[in-house]
Records
---
Amino acid sequence: MAETTPPIVAVRNLSKSYRRGQQTVPVLQDISFDIAPGEFLALMGPSGSGKSTLLNLIAGIDKADSGTITIGGVEITTLPEAELAAWRAGNVGFIFQFYNLIPVLTAFENVELPLLLTGLTRRERRDHVETVLSLVGLADRMDHYPSQLSGGQQQRVAIARAMVTDPEILVADEPTGDLDRVSAGEILALMERLVHGFGKTIIMVTHDPRAAEQAHRLLHLEKGELTDGAG
Amino acid sequence: MFILKLLIRNAFRHKLRTILTIVGVAIAIVAFGLLRTLVDLWYAGVEASSASRLITRNAISLVFPLPISYKDRIRQMPGVKDVSWGNWFGGIYKDEKNFFPNFAVEPKSYLAMYPEYVIDSSQVKAFALDRKGCIVGRKTAERFGWKVGDQVTLRGTIFPGQWDFVIRGIYRGAQKNTDETQLFFHWDYLNETVKKTLARRADQVGFYMISLTKPELAAEVSLAIDAIFKNSLAETLTETEKAFQMSFVSMTEAILIAIQIVSYVVIVIIMVVAANTMAMTARERIAEYATLKTLGFGAIHIAGVIFGESIVIAMIGGIAGVACTFPAAHWIETELSQFFPVFSIASQTIVMDLAAALVVGVVAGIFPTWRGSTIRIADGLRRIG
């Protein structure tokens, strides 16, 4: 009998709704799927389909109404807030559309941020930060502030920040949405490298078909339901 | 360390806004400090007065005089060391705006009883020998450019007429809070002139000043003095100099309370302004706080960043305000010395200034801190796909 690799992410019967005044608006309805380790998954769908909400739930920054999400054997849907924050810090890297860098911190300091919550020494932190900034090709820009960097460079700093704690999973919400074609290509190439070179699992929300093409698998969401590709 | 670095950099992110807030807090602290000092000034006479000296005045009111004959009977009382007497003269130098306090006193006993007026012994002698002589405080002499030997004419208000004096001495205060604006002249000069012009008001004094052999006898002696003049035509009220001064403060208590209220209102206003600034700042940075939370930073870190920034801005404003209070007080003391002969900032006022700045920082930071630290990450990131 062939041995199958257990999924790194297992989503089961996940539902989520928002309240708008007196109305309850369902956003995700009974979603189930798995993601294998080292997979590059793209989530696509029209605006309001629930893809960012799904990403937030997998990343542990939002709470589901029902269903479970198990990541690396940990059922994160049952974790209390403080434990969830600690879990996030060690297990998930975040890449945002608008980079979400802290403008008053340099590239180095922005990348160092997640390490401040670890027990690493100053020297160890410096080594880690320099390594990831070299990896994203910004070793010479570490003392620059975000305003002194281009959009593509800022996104690479954000990727370095997501990578610096060496998480198994990276979640990316429209990572190329604010970039020109060339910069977007560079970012996608870098993400591809993280999957193939470093074995990271990437879950990416995108509207960009070109970005989606880079993914190993594509999931379509429509009105809070998966329309194809679940598995 | 990171929180400190972040909050300091955040504080100066919008330089103009931060500087305007700091200036606002500084101005409020200057106003608060000056108003508190004004309140203290009200009590300066009380503070500078002695608990071991008594003042005896007419029991009905200070405006009614007492006979000069009382002095010998008071002097004979057990516990009394010496007696002096005087009248509020209320003279005007050229114009009402040139106000300074002026009194007719018995020179020898008065200067012996008030060592806080420091004056050269040769000037004391010259003053004692000249019936028309007077001594004047350093600040008033400087204000009008008077020197020893100058002739000064005051227009009498309570005692009508033109009153000529020759300055025989200029005194300094032994302490910072000693009033250096007063003028003293011979009670005999007043009395002899009054005898000629207003005979019915002659041989009467406004108040007696009594020094005691032991300060602890104050209550006993006061009661004894008032007892011997009971049922006379001019009954007396004797109290310590401190209580006497305090009675003047009590007369103006409503003004005092109004000033105190205004001083607190100033702080409340700047508190609201600073709170608005901090709320605006926190609102603009909600996505950053959400990002920090996403990375694993807790509510306590976010609270530290926002609260710390609020306190840093308020305390910089507070320190700047304290630094500006001293030159402002010096300016008032020199330029408005006729109204505020002593205007020095007490160390207690500085503590209150800094405490007020801290309160502004704390109160201004409460709501933004609560909002920033409790924001849901997903809401903060404002992305619902």
---
Amino acid sequence: MFDGLDFETAGGEALALVGHNGAGKTSLLRLIAGLLVPAAGTISFDGGEADTPVAEQAHYLGHRDALKPSLSVAENLAFWRDFLGGEPTDCGAAIAAVGLAHAAELPAAYLSAGQRRRLSIARLLVVRRPIWLLDEPTSALDVKGQALFAGLMQEHLASGGLIVAATHSPLGIQTREMRIGAAA
Amino acid sequence: MTALGAIIRRDVRIALRVGGGALIGVLFFLTVVVLMPFAVGPDLKLLQRLGPAILWLGALLASLLTLDRLFTADAEDGSLDLIVMSRTPLELTCAAKALAHWLAAGLPLIVATPVLGLLLNLDGTASLAVMATLLAGTPALTFTGMIGAALAVTLRRGGLLMAVLVLPLAIPVLIFGVAASQAAITGPVPFGTPFSILCALSLASLVVGPFAAAASLRHGLD
């Protein structure tokens, strides 16, 4: 799919992957996340925890929200916090940060697409990881939600984090663009 | 450990909630066993002789019924990606998921067995024997079935394929499960021999199942 792709990015920087549909933005993110195995080449991460694969230091926010409809908002988040090895903190703060405090006890089945997206963004806050891999993160978010998420990304970058996002629409933060695929 | 505890808690909780599927298995088991005396007729001797086989067959089919969703549900909503990425070894996660499935879907079958045994003219000892063999044998069904469930993830409508793949592995469990129950009820073979083989099958599947399922999940990622 890719040939001769060589790029690097550093902490505090957001890299926006742009390209036409099918250019391989999602595939590249999944490669970094370790969900696809590269046919050739390497992906490496300096700093962070030594001897830990990139995938384990990254958050992957894909097209699908990884939520269970029969569990409540708080239960969904608490599960990912425990499973991904987060500090056993209260999820309330993260739920409030994405503006879902009023729905914390509702089953996730009742959430709208935008609210589901907000809840999966809360997952990024409840477990700290230096790398955020975001696939069309702002789709389904309303204008307020996009502004809120831009603020959260800004905070993540300010604390030395790194963002790689595949996107068509501007994220609302300072990004470096990388175009992949043939220019169409 | 927190991670594995979290996944067991989550899966059991989902299974027990409305639409979760834990009850489907028990209801299916109940239906099969309740209908059987009507089909076989009122011959109490015959029912007693067929009893353990009917209970085992019902339990086997009931535990396969819900197993195909073990990984598919997680694959569909994207949870599987995060599970594969996480630092918890995938083999352990698979084992935890199978354990949760057994707790939510296998254990209720065993609890229901003595009640259903009454319908098949099984006395106390016979019911206890069947319960013991189910307790020893159903983990083998879940852990080998998990391999099929992991293979079915990559295929749409993989349920049928799963049944075809898993049933051959379930046959030895069925043979020794029924043999041990019969031995306890009528003899002449001592109960211990087939029962130990049944335990061995379960223990082997506890080891092989998670590794095979994890390998298949890793291979099937797209």
